[in-house]
Amino acid sequence: MDAPAVIGRVLEQRVLEQFLGEPGDEPRALILEGDAGIGKSMIWSLGVAQALDRNLTVASARGTQSETGLAFSGLTDLFDYVDSEVFEGLPAAKRIVLEVAMLRRAPSAEPIGQREVSAAALALLRSLTAAGPLVLAIDDLQWLDRPSAEALAFALRRLPDQPVRLLATRRTPGGVAPAEPDDRSGVLTGALPPATVNTVTLGPLDQRGIAALLADQLQLRLQPGALRGLIARTGGNPLWALELGRAIARADDHSQLPLPEGLLTLIGQRLAELDAGANEALLVVAALAYPTFELCTRALAGVVPDPATAIDAGVEAGVLTVAGTRLHLAHPLLGSVALERLPPGARADLHTRLAATTADPEQHARHLALARPGRKDPEVAAALEDGAAAALARGATSTAANLVELAVQFTPLDRDADLIRRTVQAADVHHALGNLELAYDHASHVYGKELTVEQRRQVLPLLLDTFFWHRGSVEAQKLIRATLDDPERDPYLRAIALASAAENGDGLGTPRSQLARQAEDILEQSEIDSDPYVAAYVLVILADIRLKSGNGFPEDYLRRAEMAQRQRPMVRFTQRATTIRAFFLKAVDDLDGARTALHSALAVARDEGEDGVVPLILGHLTLTECWAGRYEDAAIASEEGLRLAGPRNPVMLALYAASALLRVLTGDPEGARELLADQPDNRDEINPFMALPYDHVLGAAALLSNDDETAVELLSSAYTKARDLEIHEPGRRYRLESDLGQALINAGRLEEAADLAAELRELGTRQNRPTILGIGLRLDALVLSQRGDPDAAEPLASEAVTLHEQSPFPLERGLSLFALGRVQRRRKARAQARASIQAALDCFSELGATAYARFARLMLEQLGGSRGGGSALTDAERRIADLLATGMSNREIAAALYSSIRTVEGHLSSIYRKLGIHSRTELIRRHSRA
Distance (Å, rounded) from C-alpha 899 to C-alpha 895? Predict the structure, then answer.
C-alpha cells in the first residue's frame, strides 16, 4: 500500500511514528478523532502504509454507516486477508466458529454464541501476534458493527501481554454531520486501560495547509483575500474546503465565493452533477453493509445499462474507491447525503431491490424493513424472524435480539400465533443476554395469552426467574399458585411451579420439602428430561433443595440438568449446572474440588466475556479460601471481586459477606461492619436466604469482640431463618454453628448449645464428615465442662481434635485445641492445658487468624505460660523473622510474601512470644548473634 501524501499535520505524523515504533508487549491504542472531513482517514491510511513498511502485521477494516450493518462485517473485513495457513493452525472448533461468523461456512444445526465467536477471535489474534506486533486498523470506529466490537473488546481484555496496536478513527459529535446515535467506539476503547489509549483530536488546517491542499487536489490557487474567506467559511475543514474549492473552480470569477453555506449543501450540489450511472452505484454502495463488486453489479443490473461502467464512473468521479473485491465510499458523507436526498418512494424502491439481491437472511430482512417502514407487514416480520435465527446461528446474539424485536414490531396484531411466538423468542434471547428486565417484559406480556403448552413451558421459567426482582415475592407466589390451580394440570408446568415454590415458598406456608417431593414425583413419573427448558430449570432448583436439606451432594440432578442444558441454544452463566456445581462443592467440605471448579468457572467466564458474573465467582472463591485457612488467597480474590462489583450491588451480597468474614478472621471486625453497613438494608426482602451470611458475619464479629448478647441475637436469628427455610446443611448455612454454639455457651444457654451439638453429630455421622462431627463433639465437650464435668468432657474434646486433623478446615483444629485446653484447665491439668493452648496459638498464628490468636495468648498468660517457653518457629514465622532481620518493614514483608499486613503482624506476635522478646530491635540483635 502506497503511503498517501499528507499535507500539514506534522504533529499528528510525529505521534503516529512514535505509536508504531513504541516498544512493549502490552496492547496500546491511538484514536484519531475529529469532525467529519477533518482528515482522520488520511492520517489513518498513512499509519496503515507505515505499519506495512515496518513489516508489521496489519488487519484493517472500515466501519459502515449503512442502516443495514451486517453482524461480524468488521471481523470479516479485518480477517479477510489473513493467510489460510493461519486459520488452519487454529483449533478446529474455533476455526469453524470464525468461518461461520464470517459467512465462509454454513451454520450447523447447533447455534453458536457471541462468546464462542469472541473466544475464536481471541485465538486468532494470539496466533497473529505470535509472529510479532499486530496493528488492528479500523477507520470510522463509531460504525463498527456491535458483534464485531464486542468480540474484539473481549479479545483485547485478554491480551495483556501481547503486542497489539489499535489504530482507529472516530468521528466526534457535532460539526458538519449529526452525532451517531449508536456510537460503538466505547465498546472497544473501554477494553483497554485508560493509560494505554492515546486520543488525538485533529483540528483545522491552517492557511498554508489549505492553500497547498487546493493546489494539490484541484490545481486551484486563490488570491489571499478569497483564501481567507474560504477558510473562514469552512473553519479549516479540509473536506469542506475541497468541496467549496470545487464550486469556486466551476465559477468564472475565482475571487467570489459561491452562495451555499453548508458542507452538506455543497456535497449535494456535487452529487447532482454525477451522471445517472455513477449516482446509482453510489447509492448501492452506501446502502449495502458489505458492498462487494459482485453484489453491487447484481444490484445495478436492470437499473443501468452496464453496471461495471456505472461503478467505474463512480470511481472516476471520486465518490467511490476500490479495495480488493470491496467498494468503498470516498467519504462517508457522500453516502449519507446521497441517501438523504432520495425521496421516500425511491428509497423504498432501492431497499426493495437490495432485499431481492442479497441472499443473506439478516440483510434481506433489514432491507425489507427499511423498504416498508412503520407498517405491520407479515412478510417483513417473517423475514426478520428468519434473520434473527441466522444471526443466532452465527453467534451474533445481540443482533438476533435486535432483529426479533423488529419482527415483533412488524407482526400484524391479528397474527396472534406469530406475535406470541416471536415475543417468546425475544424473551428467551434477552434472558440469555442477561437483560432480565426486557425478558420479564416480553414474557409477562404474553403469558396470559393463548400459548401452546410448549410455549408456556418455555415462558414460565423466564417469568419465575425474573418475577421476584420486578414484582416481589407475593406476586410471584400468586403466579405459582395460579399455575398449580390450573385445571389442565400439565405435569411439566406443575413441576416448574412446584420447584419454584420449594425454593421461594408458595405463600400458603406449605413445607418446602413437601413441595420439592411433589416436584420430584413428577420427575420420576414423566419424560421431563425430554423437554430441555423444563428439565434445566427444575433439576437445578431441586439440586439446591437437596443440598440444603442435608441429604448430601446432588450430583445426579446436576448431571441431568447439564445434559438438558446442552440441548438449549442459550443458558445464563449462573444457571449452568457446571457453575452451580462449583458453587456447591465447598458446602460439602470439598474445598480442593471447589477451588479447582471455581478457577475453571472464572476462566470460562472471562473467556466467554461474562464479566458481570466474575465478582460473584470471586465471592465464592473468597469464602472457599477463608474456610480453607488460605487468607492471603482469600484477600486477593476479595479485593478483585470488590473492585469489579462496586458498592451496593444486591446481586453480589455473597461477595460482600465473604469479604467481611475475612476481615473478622484476620482481626478487623470493625472493617467488616463498615463493609456490610454499606449494603442494602432490605436484603431480607430481596432474598431471605442472602441475609444468613450477613447475620453470621456480624454475629461472629460480636462474639470476637466479647459482645455475647449481640452475638447470640444475630447468630440465633440466622439459625432460625435457616431452619424456617428448611436449610439443614451447615455449608449452606454458612457454617454458623460453631460461632452460635460458642455464643450460647458463653451466655449460659447450655441446653440450646447441646441441641445444636446433637444435630451436628447426627449429620456428621450420617454423612461421614469429620469437620461437622468434630464441631458437634467440641460443643458437647464445652457444655459438659460448663456443667461441671470436665472429666467427661476431655475425651470428647480430644476426639474433636483428632477428627479435625482430617478436616480441610484448619481453623477448626485450632478451635478444638483451644476448647481442649479450656477443658483441661477446668480439670486443673495446667501443663496439659498450656500445651493445648500453645498448639492452638501456633495454629491461629500460622493461619493469620489474629482474632483467635488474641484469645489464645490471653489464656496462656492466665495459665502462667513462660514468654520464652513456646514451641519452635514455624516455617512461615522463620521466613518473616529472616526478612525482618534485614530491616524490611511489615508492609515490605507482606509484599515479598504475597501476604497481608495483618497476617505478618499476627506472625510477629507469635515470634516475639516464642523467642521471649519484646521488639524487632531485639529480634535483629538476636539474628546478628546467630
Answer: 6
- Contact (CB, 8 A) for 410 and 380: yes
What pLDDT does residue 191 have? 84
Cell of 490: 400439565
Distance from the Cα of residue 229 to its chain's centroid? 53
Question: Which tens digits make up the pLDDT trace of 340-380?
Answer: 889 999 999 999 999 999 888 999 999 999 999 888 999 99
CB atoms within 10 A of CB 80: 15
Place of cell 456505472: 310
**Angle of helix 416-433 versus helix 436-447 axis, rounded to 10:** 160
Cell matching residue 800? 474433636
Nearest to 462 by CA among 421, 506, 430, 502: 430
Residues of the chain with pLDDT under 50: 178-179, 181, 259, 683, 686, 866-870
- Residues 795 and 790: their CA atoms lie apart, in Å, by 9
Amino acid at 601: A
Q: What is the DSSP string of 796-834?
A: HHHHHHHHHHS-S-HHHHHHHHHHHHHHHHHTT-HHHHH
**Can you give the pLDDT at residue 686?**
47
The answer to whether the beta carbons of residues 484 and 494 sit under 8 Å apart is yes
In order of their start, the domains of the chain are 10-201 (3.40.50.300), 207-270 (no CATH), 276-325+336-433 (no CATH), 455-671 (1.25.40.10), 866-930 (1.10.10.10)
What is the per-residue pLDDT for 890?
82
Position 101 scores a pLDDT of 86
Angle subtended by helix axes 691-704 and 850-863, to nearest 10: 30
- How confident is the model at residue 866, as a pLDDT? 44
What are the b/e assignments for 95-131, b being 16+ CB within 10 Å? bbbbbbbbbeeebeeebbbbbbbbbbbbbbbbbbbee
Distance between CA 120 and CA 97 in Å, rounded? 7
> How confident is the model at residue 111, as a pLDDT?
65
Residue 209 phi, psi (nearest 5): -65, -40
Per DSSP, 912 falls in state H
d(CA 801, CA 163): 55
Compute and round to an integer the Cα radius of gyration of the chain: 35
β-strands 320-323, 326-329 pairing = antiparallel
DSSP alpha helix (H) spans, 649-789: 653-665, 669-677, 683-686, 691-704, 708-724, 737-746, 750-766, 770-786
The string of DSSP letters for 385-439 reads HHHHHHHHHBT-HHHHHHHHHHHHHHS-TT-HHHHHHHHHHHHHHHHHHT-HHHH
DSSP SS3 for 550? coil
| Burial of 91 (C-beta count, 10 Å sphere; 0-12/13-18/19+) | exposed
C-alpha cell at 594: 471447589
Q: Is 236 left (phi over 0), alpha (psi -120 to 50) or beta?
A: left
Measured distance CA(173)–CA(178) in Å, rounded: 7
Sheet containing 164-171, strands listed edge to edge, beginning at the edge strand earlier in sequence:
57-62, 134-139, 164-171, 28-34, 197-201
Note the pLDDT of residue 470. 67
The cell for 810 is: 484448619
The residues with which 329 forms a beta bridge, in sequence order, are 320
Q: What is the pLDDT at residue 190?
A: 83
Q: Tell me how far apart the terminal alpha carbons of the chain are, to the nearest angstrom.
A: 71
Query: What is the Cα–Cα distance from 50 to 699, expressed in whole angstroms?
Result: 65
Burial class (CB in 10 A: 0-12, 13-18, 19+), 11: exposed
Q: What is the pTM of this model?
A: 0.66
Q: Which is it for strands 28-34 and 197-201: parallel, antiparallel or unpaired? A: parallel
> Other C-beta atoms within 10 Å of 766: how many?
13
